[in-house]
Amino acid sequence: MPIADLGVDSLQLVMFGGKGGVGKTTAAAATALYLSESYNTLLISTDPAHSIADSFRISIDHRIKSHENIPNLSLYEVDAEQALETFKKDNDKEIKKLMDTSTSFDQEDIDAFLSLPVPGIDEVMGFKTVVDLIDEAKYEKYVIDTAPTGHALRLLSSPGLFDDWVKVMAQLRWKYRYMVTRFSGKYTPDDADDFLLKMKKTIKKIQNLLRDPAKSKFVAVTIPETMAIEETRRLLSRLEAMQIEVKDIIVNNVLTSEGCQFCMQRKQSQKRYLDEIVSTFSNQKPTIIPLQPSDVSGLDSLRIIRDILFED
Ligand SMILES: Nc1ncnc2c1ncn2[C@@H]1O[C@H](COP(=O)(O)OP(=O)(O)O)[C@@H](O)[C@H]1O
Ligand SMILES: [Mg+2]
After folding, report:
1. Which of these ranges, 31-45, 94-108, 169-183, has the smallest mean pLDDT?
2. Residue 17 — φ and ψ, nearest 5°?
3. How many Å lie between the centroid of ligand 2 and the Cα of residue 129?
4. Which of 125, 146, 241, 309 has its CA 20 to 30 A from that of 103?
5. Strand 141-145 with 13-17, pairing
6. What are 41's strand-pairing partners?
7. Which domains does the chain have, with CATH numbers?
8. Contact 70/33 with Cβ under 8 angstroms?
9. Per residue in 202-239, pLDDT tens?
10. Residues 153, 155, 159, 164, CA torsion sign
11. Cβ neighbours of residue 164 under 8 Å, at least 6 residues apart?
């Protein structure tokens, strides 16, 4: 069954997630190829081990690049660390002020603190880059090739992790406001307050986008093998806990040939796992991608996967 509803106007974001090596990049690239036929589409990779350029057999750097031969398709491999550095530079003054007035840190402490990793902040920045792009509305559809499960979950839960950090800062700030108000009788919000508010809004925006099934869709990708099924189970339950609904599951590398003894045995073993996938993930609609005779890279083979995914 093909993946449906991607053409709905309100749907902006399609994310692919799953274990390493199951076919996330392949599915994301084929989907972007499909969408670019009708929509101005941006394919984004948030996997630090980027491979969307390899999938299309082109070279890109950490900037948005339109595909030379496919109108309406652009590609972008997000550098989350770079996004974080830019963010720190842009907000350096506000962050320092916040730390200075809200804690008893001296300048050296503040510098040391800022060089520490805040839980999930680089991922938040990666996602912020995506949300900012969506805000700019230059594209109609955004397809994300996410990192393997663990990292992607961290990415998806990072707004929550980061939210906790912002809350602690806000509490400290609140104490500061209280003291200032007590001693001077009034308090005027400053840059640091604006900054906290801005961060809260960013987090809320990311969460709202991910949790709104009208705006975004998460597609799980798996293969008929026991470890992949286990990992998919964990992924789906974590996503559910984050209130992110998953309606589609792609089952990749399914053997169709019966031409040899080995193929028949493999097919037999896959049959058991396919049945398990269908019964375990009964809330998700399965789409099967047969195992191809060779790996999938370059336009011709991506078009084959596109047709498998989207032709009735
Ligand atoms: N259906 C398929 N048949 C044959 N090779 C495939 C298929 N799907 C993916 N591949 C190949 O398997 C490898 C892993 O796929 P990839 O999409 O990069 O996985 P992921 O992004 O989940 O790590 C790639 O070399 C890709 O070309
Ligand atoms: Mg990949």
Report:
1. 94-108
2. -145, 155
3. 19
4. 125
5. parallel
6. 73, 141
7. 13-79+120-152+214-310 (3.40.50.300)
8. yes
9. 878 888 888 899 999 999 999 999 999 999 999 999 89
10. positive
11. 119
Residues 157 and 210: their CA atoms lie apart, in Å, by: 10
Residues 6+ apart with CB under 8 A from 36: 67, 70, 71, 72, 73
Q: Which distant-in-sequence residues (6+ apart) come within 8 Å of 62 by Cβ?
A: 76, 77, 78, 79, 82
Please count the helices (runs of H) and the strands (runs of E) in the chain: 11, 8
How many whole angstroms from 156 Cα to the centroid of ligand 1? 23
Whole-number Cα distances in Å, 187 to 48, 53, 306: 43, 52, 59
**Closest atom of ligand 1 relative to the 293 alpha carbon:** 4
Over residues 70-83, the pLDDT tens digits come to 999 999 998 877 88
Regarding pTM above 0.85, the answer is yes
| Nearest atom within ligand 1 for CA of residue 297 | 27
CA of 149 to the centre of ligand 1 (A): 16
Residues 6+ apart with CB under 8 A from 32: 41, 42, 43, 73, 75, 141, 143
Ligand approaching nearest to the C-alpha of 45: 2
DSSP conformation letters of 100-144: HHHS---HHHHHHHHHSPPTTHHHHHHHHHHHHHHHHT--SEEEE
CA distances in angstroms from 190 to 104, 186, 301, listed in the order given: 18, 13, 56
Tokens of 167: 């809350």
